[in-house]
Specification:
The complex is a heterodimer. By secondary structure, chain A is of the alpha/beta class. Chain A has 10 helices and 9 strands. In chain A, helix 4 crosses helix 5 and helix 4 packs parallel to helix 6. Chain A is globular, with a radius of gyration of 18 Å. Chain B has a domain of 208 residues: Rossmann fold (3-Layer(aba) Sandwich), CATH 3.40.50.11310. By secondary structure, chain B is an alpha/beta fold. The chains are: A alpha/beta, B alpha/beta.
Chain lengths: 264, 303
Amino acid sequence: MTVMDAPRLATTRPLLTAQGLSLRYGSVQALCDVSATVYPGEVLGIVGESGSGKSTFLRCLNLEETPDQGSYTLDLPDVSGNLFELDRFARRMLCATRIGIVYQNPHLGLLMKHSSSGNVAERLLVAGERRFAVLRDKARGALDASEFPLDRMDAPPIELSGGMQQRVQLAKAMALQPALLLLDEPTTGLDVSVQALVLDTLKRLQQEHNITMVIVSHDLGVIRTLADRVVVMRRGAVVEAGLVDQVFQDPQHAYTQQLVHAKL
Amino acid sequence: MTLQSLTRDWEPMAYGFLDASAKREIRRKLLKAIAVPGCQIPYASREVPMARGWGTGGLQVSCTLVTPRTRIKVIDQGADDSVNAASIRSFLARVSGAPTTSDTLEADLIQSRHRIPEERLRADQVLVLQVPNPEPLRPVQPNMSIARQMHADADYGRMWLQLYEQIVRSGRVMQGAAYPSLVNGRHVMTPSPIPRWDVPKLHMAQHLTLLSAGREKRLHAVPPFTRVEPLVFDDVPYRVEDHRDLTCYRSGARGFFMNEIPQADGSSLHEISDSDLGVKVIRRSEGEAVRIGETWYAGEEMP
């Protein structure tokens, strides 16, 4: 299966290139020769049923997991080579400074008992900022950009609603202006109106900062709203890839057809 | 020659209570800890006739270092006469035959819970601190395996998160005891629950400080003349407790760390925390010739 590139972006070099990612958990083939490229400023959507390996793929992109095979490169000034070969320390620094991630479950991404602004400040602290006033300012700025109500910025996330927790995660992910933003089912579990507001924020941030995103969702509506290109996954493998409109209007693979029709 | 004459007489216990192999293990771990200042070294932590959490870590180090000529001082929150301090002191004296003292200047080995004496320690003195929880990263990283990785990577960014939270919540750093400090520019340690007042005393100190946690089975050390820097934000300076202007109601001494004694009418009196220093000040005012050593904050600006 060849991955189609968006024509208008074809002249630039891809920011993210993942090639031939394969991963087994015992007898389960979680990823089977998955490849993807994402160009700067582009939003790649990944859809698929539960257990299709889309979250595992995203965890590999966030360097939380190392696949058995495959290579992963980011086209950034001081980053080179296969990122899976980096040591623990280099991985952690790269993740902290260049990659932002928003998890479906806020408990994974946030320190629930610390303040929301502290959660954002943690990113800056890991990157080496040691001035309290600067931390405070930047945390406020990041929370404001993700449309978080600033009068609650010192409340711990555990006291906040689900939508607000996702906004804290987003502010934390965006605090260092990462080159790549990974979103793992960012709006699942939110009600439809809050979902729309969070999607709005994401779209605005994407347009303002022209940020490169990979978004995983089983909700085709979310993908249709945000993504430029889409990859359809099933049983750990990519079954179809292409422009969002093209894939959703004219699905080729039987599974994609089923998925699109189930939605409609 | 008989076999009997070649062997040692039976004794009910080894010298210094711990058996030779236990003491040898602790000595080796102490050397390791001194070689890597501030790094937590695991050790076996044998049983001693005291409950875990009552100073078993400090006691094992003291039992290992003691000789019949070591003069021992034991303090608990600055006091020589608290039950815990008196029991440990009498135990150490009984198992080693070592002389005891309450005078900081005379002591060779000082085992302490939660305080460093106010009189400056010399190069020939050893301070043993009892540590309940040696892991500074525990409040920010409950997973100890990851915490050890963070130590290995010197990944201490999250320690400042704790300070950030305290400033946001209370307007100032609230960490009263066990203030996390960077040792020799490499390892962050928790300097046992000594007050903020005592942390600067460890910086470039002449004496050797050994910190041992019996329950957690870890020990670490601050060798003489080692940098110990409390973690601070660049724009929020480190402050010790505001005890500089308090006066001890018994001895009249000023400029030392004080215990607060609440009174029935809601006010409070203050009493010098280092009880031996308080006694010395009183005896001097009564006309006795008492030698009081140089104190840590004498005449200089407190941070």
